[in-house]
């Protein structure tokens, strides 16, 4: 009888803790303002998935996080920052093939807001850049040439910088891709710290492949051939 009572007490305590944790998460998610019945993913500082309880424990210990989301789609992804890190100081890049690409809603230099769901159903090639990045400048002719060859894909260039800086980069270097800006939260969540970074997202919204950096020493034909090869390889792997 004592064992039965003890077992019932343990089960009751566990049930109470689970209910309390669920209520805490509901209050926390509501504070994020990411839509009704949102789907929220939690990541540790290295980009590995966490449940809410483990995530909340790190917040209680003083950790901070980046968040990227889309209230229209009711989705958000939160990633803990490395100890002592602030915006623009991301953890390691950890979004390999098959990972869910983070939701976003970002202003477009061409006007309006663009979301990940706007491009679902097509392959999306994304280039992350910043205005003073010499390799980012050097890759523009390659990106333009590849986009001209592949009208069946979508192309997005994303920067953490502001609209004026993005505008100046487009005008100075002739980038023809759609450009999204003010994306610090997205780049931090992804862990992008080396530029340029290229990512291919498949039609279902998962990462198909990624490449960090592009050589400035190769000629334009070699850079274009490399890009064609990477994309073809990534597509074959996802299929």
List keywords for this structure.
alpha/beta, Glutaredoxin, 5-stranded mixed sheet, 4-stranded mixed sheet, 6 helices, 11 strands, 39% helix
Present the secondary structure layout:
Elements: H1 2-32, E1 39-43, E2 49-50, H2 52-60, E3 65-70, E4 75-80, E5 105-107, E6 113-115, E7 124-128, H3 134-149, E8 154-158, H4 163-173, E9 178-180, H5 184-190, E10 197-201, E11 207-212, H6 220-238
Parallel strand pairs: 1-4, 7-8, 8-9
Antiparallel strand pairs: 1-2, 3-4, 5-6, 7-10, 10-11
Helix pairs in contact: 3-6
Could you describe the 3D structure shown?
With 239 residues, the chain is of the alpha/beta class. It has a domain at 88-238: Glutaredoxin. Helix content is 39%, strand content 21%. The chain is built from 6 helices and 11 strands. It has a 5-stranded mixed β-sheet with strand order 9-8-7-10-11. Strands 2-1-4-3 form a 4-stranded mixed β-sheet. α3 (134-149) packs across α6 (220-238). The radius of gyration is 21 Å and the shape is globular.
Reported for the largest beta sheet, the result is:
5 strands, mixed
Strand content: 15-25%
Would you report the number of β strands? 11
Radius of gyration, CA atoms, in whole angstroms:
21 Å
Describe the strand arrangement of the main beta sheet, using strand numbers: 9-8-7-10-11
Question: CATH superfamily membership of one domain, which one?
Answer: Glutaredoxin
Shape: globular
At the fold tier of CATH, the topology name of one domain is: Glutaredoxin
**Could you spell the SSE succession in H and E letters?**
HEEHEEEEEHEHEHEEH
Give the end-to-end Cα distance, rounded to a whole number of Å.
59 Å
Number of helices: 6
Question: What is the share of helical residues?
Answer: 25-40%
Structural class: alpha/beta
The CATH architecture category of one domain equals 3-Layer(aba) Sandwich
Mean pLDDT score, rounded? 89
Poorly predicted tracts of residues: 6-19
CATH class call of one domain: Alpha Beta
Protein name: TlpA family protein disulfide reductase
Keywords: Signal
InterPro entries: AhpC/TSA, Thioredoxin-like_sf, Thioredoxin_domain, Thioredoxin_ResA/DsbE_sf
Pfam families: AhpC-TSA
